């Protein structure tokens, strides 16, 4: 069977035993003497004992006892009070010290908690700012990537247009070379036919040799004049083509510089876009000039064909009436000689 509990009388007897040994009563020492009891119950009984002692401190000893016993009781009472006061003072000092330590620890814990809350607030604010900066940087990165992709597409378009312009320039060169070759071949063919016709005319009309030689010289002079004019036009065309090539090379160089400025900054990127628009306009102007040169070459070819036709008519149509007159004159002279 378990013990019901520690009573106040048990605690009081343990306290008297401790006081008789000169020890200050405490919960632990009382429990050691009793050998049982909870700390809460012993602490409550010890508190009641101290309260009663404080209340009975100034109560005089009972009257009617012998003087010697009364003196002994008073001496024991004073000794007990002094011992209790010393113990109480010690406990009060210890309690005050522990209270101060507890207050200091609580203040330190409060300060640490406040510091922790401030650090938490600062960290939360820093984290929020970091997240905002991260979102802003992510948005800016996405914008830069989109701009870079746009610039790459624009670069590809410009490269395609430049390749088309170079291809068109090559075709125009080939066309100019073909026209020059055709003109040279036509002039050689014309001269060959003219010489053949002159040979036949010399065989048929010896009397018209001087006039035909003059016509041949005139045709040669005209041919030389046309060749010089054609050579001048070809030289001008080559110079224009060289200028166009230089413009294309300058456009390539400027395009490379613009790409470098595009990679360096947004401002350079906008400048590159404006310059790319300008180059696009220049390409359009260059294409227009190339088209104009092509039309000019076609006009020159048309004028050359017209000159060839005129020369042909001059060589073969103009002498026909004269040859008829000479033939008529020869026929008229023949009867006179016969007569």
Proportion in β-strands: under 5%
Shape: rod-shaped
Distance between the termini: 194 Å
Q: H/E element string?
A: HHHHHHH
Overall number of strands: 0
- What structural class do the secondary elements suggest? mainly alpha
Tally the helices: what do you get? 7
Radius of gyration: 66 Å
Uncertain parts: 334-339
The biggest beta sheet reads: none
Report the mean per-residue pLDDT as an integer. 78
State the share of residues found in helices, binned by percent: over 70%
Describe the protein in words:
The chain is 89% helix and 0% strand. With 339 residues, the protein is mainly alpha-helical. The protein is rod-shaped. It starts with 7 loop residues before the first helix and ends with a helix. The model is unreliable at 334-339 (pLDDT under 50).
Topology:
Layout: H1 8-20, H2 27-34, H3 39-55, H4 67-204, H5 209-264, H6 266-316, H7 319-338
Helix pairs in contact: 1-2, 1-3, 2-3, 4-5, 4-6, 5-6
Summary tags:
disordered C terminus; mainly alpha; 339 residues; 89% helix; single chain
In a few lines, what is going on in this structure?
The chain has 339 residues and is mainly alpha-helical.
